[in-house]
Amino acid sequence: MQSTSETSEAPSLLRWGLTLAASAGLTGMLCCVAPMVLFMFGLMGGAYAISFADFFYQADGSPGTGAYLLRVLAVVVGAGGVWQYRSRQQACSIDPRRQQKNLLLLVVLVTTLGAGFFFSFEELSSWYFDAYIVPAQQAELHQG
Questions:
Q1: Among 23, 50, 116, 133, which residue has the least CB neighbours within 10 Å?
Q2: 3-state DSSP assignment of residue 97
Q3: Could you tell me if 38 and 44 are in contact, meaning their C-beta atoms sit under 8 angstroms apart?
């Protein structure tokens, strides 16, 4: 009977890269995506969603300390995923040159797609906030 280390296969580069890029991109935009999703499902009102997002941004709309911390966390998620991929890949018996090529491809894939996911989530949440959450917040504040 063969041990698991002898029969293990290299992790899928594309699947690993897509999952990791989406995770890093979402982590970087958690400040806006989380209140947007909670508002969509009716678990949070407009005023609270705005106040939640305001924690991460300054009054002029530029990123604040919280937003930068989430972006650093997104880089940590990406780097940790690349390191974990490298560890699993080294457990397999594939050519070292192929391992280096796969690692480089993963870094490029995660960087490119992670930035793409980040900016897509940012654009989507900005549109959703302007179209739905801000009007709901204004309606809530003018009820009293």
A1: 116
A2: helix
A3: yes
Tokens linked to 7: 């029969």
According to DSSP H, which parts of the chain are helical?
4-7, 13-28, 30-40, 46-54, 65-90, 96-128, 134-141
Contact status, residue 62 vs residue 20, Cβ threshold 8 Å: no
Contact present, 97 and 7 (Cβ < 8 Å): no
How do the domains of the chain map onto residue ranges?
29-141
Q: Is 57 helix (H, G, I), strand (E, B) or coil?
A: strand
Bridge partners of 142, per DSSP, are none
The pLDDT tens digits for 15-44 are 999 999 999 999 998 888 899 999 999 999
